[in-house]
């Protein structure tokens, strides 16, 4: 972001033959594998549907076997199975699954939020929108000894639990085992018969492939009552639910339900309900239209309802539910009337692949390449900044220009493009995108006919390239956020100020692009001011003179300019203070700068506004979010609201696999060389990669303070650690992401130390044990904000140093990222940003399109089919050649993309080994950057260098590599392909 300062990867899952997923845990023991059922020859499905929270008198299954026809609505009546469950067995013939919805036979439907349920075969449970696999009514109790097992899922987030067990001397149940019943909040229970046995082996799972098998050892439980919580078994235990009064108290009724329609979509939001044990979800009931009522379960306090009928009034009510299914009464209804269906843009969907495979090219869209001069805009600082004299409007590049040069980026070898924020901005100098005004609208200065944001996403995906959208949750423009709150300032069109305050035009709506006829400006401000005190004004001393004068000698009035301490911004939406300590609690709850109005992100209306806005871009198919100023929002707020909302939306729209690889990486700006930012864990990048480890107040504001005090009180020595980035000797191991927050990070420590590649390497290694998984770190040398060591200039270390940095970034752990133009050392040594006090052409944010003139077609990632004009010259530069080959090598060696690493048994400056193992893939590489190295204790075999093709046979676990020279490297791959690409200026 532009600063002037004194800023769900859910658990990974790999399927085994028995349907057992072992992350974060280890491979099941041999009896587990022996319990694998044979493939069924006759396809059928027994569908169990949970009834407790529906309050329906009848239950119908309306379904269609895969490839077949739907039953006639309302479908087939389901029969009682056991308490709170009904069931129906469906003959699928040759089909491998079915699509399904449920209803009460009277027009109220549960159709999975409009997506329908996709079900497989065997026993399937559908409980409050969650699909799992077990028989919740299975009778496993038998004669003889019994064991009553309680299992805690309080730290796991499971919505169902199965017990898979083996009585001593007996056989294992068929995976996934028998369904457990909810006993009390966070606990599941099952009593099983052991016959003559007095103990059992046990493992637990969530019915969807996530297992707890005691890290591969299974649990040994005795007869009688046992509890299992956080891998700890307590024999002869007390009933963990016995001391609790039955939870019969329903949550409070949701209040403040608001519905607003845009085209044929409705955004519904409401204030959080409260409950003695905690609200777990909400049920939204919609009535209206010709398709009957629907009930949708959501876990946030905002719901986007899309694809509705035109010109139709829809009414919504909301119920709150707790963990035991107690439901509040329905809220007061809220209604909205849809309009006309907009032209249907081409749909998009994220590519959904592992983000570590995709090097990132970062562009400031407005400064990259101009494809449509008609949307160029200079703003009110056009002349003052000096841009007018250079015929260089700040809004110059656009999506059309980016689409036209995707092949240039692909020819460099990049398969992901990080773009600056796309939402409508409103500020004096807002081309960079970080002054959001209407978060629900794409800035018109970036779009063109045939080159909308959706067109860009689709064009990139067609080339196998991802789009990462820069997003801002922390602040809006100084003019607030349209649809949430926009302040009105005092203004008067007198002989001093009439030049500044545009005449009001009630029929004009600011969009940044359209020129208002009276003022002749696209940056019209007539809607922002008032001479008369507006209704509900909270600004102090409205319109009274301050006694100060402007630089021109004009009288200054109170409330003439937005700021946090005047009372102009309501506390319900914005914080009302300035930051005093950048490493203090106030850095998370006060304004950064006067043109960045700080959201109260602990406020439910703000949370609803932002979640609803970014749902829109998720739905368009973006592949991930780069999160601006993440450190200025408490981690507990990210973990409670924003990160789960992202995962939920991607999962609902595109499925769990896409959600797993939807890449979220945060800017936690720690501009120091410390492992922990000046000793404050709350202000350190790695801190944001972890889930919370204790419960806090239900009130988000209180929780933020409690978390800050608790975690800083724990200190840096008592923080979670991880070995997810490290090899175990020479072996790759399954990473444990069970405590992952959902947010990855920009590697600020390497960034700060990239003045020298050796320092970056050493500092990066030193921090990796405190990051949940450093193989996902985004690594860059410089950016639109800073160079190494908090330099205000673009990196100017020289071409050799750039080549060395790149060689390290493209082979070490993490995702290599390059700021636009660095491939030709564009604007090296120039001040990155000086606001409107100097022309953009003299800064690190200069326009790049002049270097891209001509035409280019990529034949692959890192290869050029054809190029002509200026862009051909650009592609012929030495660092470009270096980048292309680095990308070719990285793509050919899986260990360099997703592998763990180690420096154990290795001598050398920047030398390491990396390995990635998955199924039939086993990639092991030895890397030496610049200097020579000796590797000991490595696997024997044939190693081939990807740079030179040199082949070595290792028979004694030892390999020595000579120094390749600055910027050069050696990558010896066990059973590797040999030389990749052709020699260039550095790799040879």
UniProtKB/TrEMBL annotation:
Superkingdom, natural source: Bacteria
Biased composition, class Low complexity, residue ranges: 292-304, 326-341, 371-380
Pfam families in alphabetical order: Alpha-amylase, CBM_25, fn3
Cofactor(s) needed for function: Ca(2+)
Domain Fibronectin type-III, chain residue ranges per copy: 250-341
UniProt keywords, alphabetically: Carbohydrate metabolism, Glycosidase, Hydrolase, Metal-binding, Polysaccharide degradation, Signal
Chain segments carrying region Disordered: 285-304, 326-356, 370-391
Classification via PANTHER family: ALPHA-AMYLASE 1 (PTHR10357:SF215), ALPHA-AMYLASE FAMILY MEMBER (PTHR10357)
Protein name (Swiss-Prot/TrEMBL): Alpha-amylase
Organism: Streptomyces caelestis
């Amino acid at each position: 972001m532009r600063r002037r300062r004194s800023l769900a990867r859910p658990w990974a899952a790999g399927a085994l033959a028995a349907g057992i997923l072992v992350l974060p845990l280890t491979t099941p023991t041999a009896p587990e594998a022996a319990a694998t059922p044979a493939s069924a020859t006759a396809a059928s499905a027994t569908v169990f549907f949970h009834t407790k929270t529906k309050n329906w008198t009848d239950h119908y299954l309306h379904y269609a076997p895969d490839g077949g026809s739907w039953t006639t609505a309302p479908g087939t009546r389901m029969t009682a199975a056991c308490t709170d469950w009904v069931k129906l067995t469906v003959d699928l013939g040759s089909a491998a699954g079915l699509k399904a919805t449920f209803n009460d036979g009277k027009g109220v439907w549960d159709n999975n939020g409009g997506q329908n349920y996709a079900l497989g075969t065997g026993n399937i449970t559908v409980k409050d929108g969650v699909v799992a696999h077990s028989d919740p009514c299975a009778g496993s109790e038998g004669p003889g000894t019994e064991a009553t097992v309680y299992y805690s899922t309080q730290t796991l987030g499971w919505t169902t639990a199965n017990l898979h067990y083996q009585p001593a001397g007996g056989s294992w149940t068929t995976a996934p085992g028998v369904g457990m019943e909810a006993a009390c909040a966070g606990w599941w229970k099952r009593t099983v018969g052991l016959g003559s046995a007095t103990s059992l082996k046990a493992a637990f799972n969530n019915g969807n492939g996530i297992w707890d098998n005691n890290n591969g050892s299974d649990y040994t439980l005795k007869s009688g009552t046992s509890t299992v919580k956080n891998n700890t078994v307590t024999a002869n235990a007390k009933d963990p639910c016995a001391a609790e009064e039955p939870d019969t108290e329903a949550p409070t009724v949701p209040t403040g339900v608001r519905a607003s329609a845009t085209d044929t979509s409705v955004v519904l939001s409401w204030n959080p309900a409260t409950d003695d044990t905690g609200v777990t979800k909400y049920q939204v009931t919609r009535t209206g239209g010709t398709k009957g009522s629907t009930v949708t379960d959501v876990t946030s306090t905002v719901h986007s309802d899309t694809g509705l009928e035109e010109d139709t009034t829809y009414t919504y009510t909301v119920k709150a539910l707790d963990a035991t299914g107690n439901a509040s009464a329905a809220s007061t209804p809220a209604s909205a009337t849809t309009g006309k269906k907009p032209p249907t843009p081409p749909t998009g969907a994220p590519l959904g692949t592992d983000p570590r495979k995709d090097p990132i090219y970062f562009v400031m869209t407005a400064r990259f390449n101009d494809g449509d001069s008609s949307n160029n805009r200079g703003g009110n600082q056009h002349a003052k900044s000096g841009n007018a004299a250079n015929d260089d409007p700040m809004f110059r590049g656009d999506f059309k220009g980016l689409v036209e040069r995707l092949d240039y980026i692909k020819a460099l070898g990049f398969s992901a493009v990080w773009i600056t924020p796309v939402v409508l901005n409103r500020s004096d100098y807002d081309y960079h995108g970080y002054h959001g005004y209407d978060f629900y609208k794409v800035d018109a200065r970036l779009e063109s006919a045939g080159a909308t944001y959706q067109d860009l996403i689709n064009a990139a995906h067609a080339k196998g390239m991802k789009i990462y959208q820069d997003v801002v949750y922390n602040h809006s423009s100084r003019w607030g956020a349209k649809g949430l709150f926009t302040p009105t300032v005092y203004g008067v069109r007198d002989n001093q100020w009439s030049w500044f305050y545009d005449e009001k035009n009630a029929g004009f709506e600011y969009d940044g692009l359209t020129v208002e006829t009276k003022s002749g400006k696209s940056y019209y401000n007539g809607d922002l001011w008032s001479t008369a005190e507006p209704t509900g004004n909270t600004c102090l001393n409205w319109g009274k003179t301050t006694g100060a004068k402007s630089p021109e000698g004009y009288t200054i009035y109170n409330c003439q300019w937005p700021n946090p301490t005047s009372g102009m911004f309501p506390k319900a939406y914005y914080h009302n203070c300035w930051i005093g300590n950048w490493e203090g609690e106030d850095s998370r709850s006060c304004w950064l700068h006067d043109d960045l109005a700080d959201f109260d992100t602990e406020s439910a209306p703000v949370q609803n506004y932002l979640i609803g806005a970014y749902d829109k871009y998720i739905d368009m198919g973006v592949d991930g979010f780069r999160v601006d100023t993440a450190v200025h929002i408490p981690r507990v707020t990210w973990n409670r609201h924003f990160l789960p909302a992202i995962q939920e939306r991607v999962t609902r729209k595109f499925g769990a696999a896409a959600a797993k690889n939807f890449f979220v990486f945060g800017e936690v700006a720690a501009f120091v060389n410390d492992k922990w930012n000046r000793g404050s864990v709350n202000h350190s990048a790695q801190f944001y990669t972890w889930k919370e480890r204790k419960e806090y107040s239900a009130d988000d504001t209180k929780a933020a303070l409690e978390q800050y005090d608790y975690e800083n009180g724990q200190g840096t020595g008592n923080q979670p650690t991880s070995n997810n980035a490290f090899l175990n000797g020479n072996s790759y191991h399954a990473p444990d992401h069970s405590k992952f927050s959902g947010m990855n990070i920009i590697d600020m420590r390497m960034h700060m130390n990239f003045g020298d590649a050796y320092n970056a390497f050493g500092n990066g290694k030193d921090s990796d044990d405190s990051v949940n998984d450093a193989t996902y770190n985004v690594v860059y040398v410089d950016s639109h904000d800073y160079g190494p060591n908090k330099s205000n200039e673009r990196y100017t270390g020289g071409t050799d140093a750039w080549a060395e940095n790149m060689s390290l970034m493209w082979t070490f752990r993490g995702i290599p990222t390059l700021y636009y133009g660095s491939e030709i050392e564009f604007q090296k040594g120039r001040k990155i940003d000086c606001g409107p006090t100097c022309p953009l052409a003299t800064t690190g944010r200069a326009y790049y399109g002049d270097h891209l003139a001509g035409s280019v077609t990529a034949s692959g990632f890192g290869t050029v089919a054809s190029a002509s004009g200026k862009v051909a010259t650009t592609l012929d530069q030495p660092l470009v050649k270096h980048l292309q080959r680095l990308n070719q090598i990285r793509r050919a060696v899986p260990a360099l993309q997703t592998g763990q690493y180690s420096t154990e048994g290795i001598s050398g400056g920047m030398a390491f080994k990396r390995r990635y193992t998955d199924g039939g893939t086993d990639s092991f590489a030895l890397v030496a950057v610049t200097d020579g190295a000796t590797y000991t204790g490595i696997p024997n075999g044939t190693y081939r260098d990807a740079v030179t093709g040199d082949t070595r046979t290792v028979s004694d676990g030892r390999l020595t590599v000579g120094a390749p020279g600055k910027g050069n490297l050696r990558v010896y791959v066990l059973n590797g392909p040999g030389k990749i690409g052709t020699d260039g200026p550095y790799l040879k």
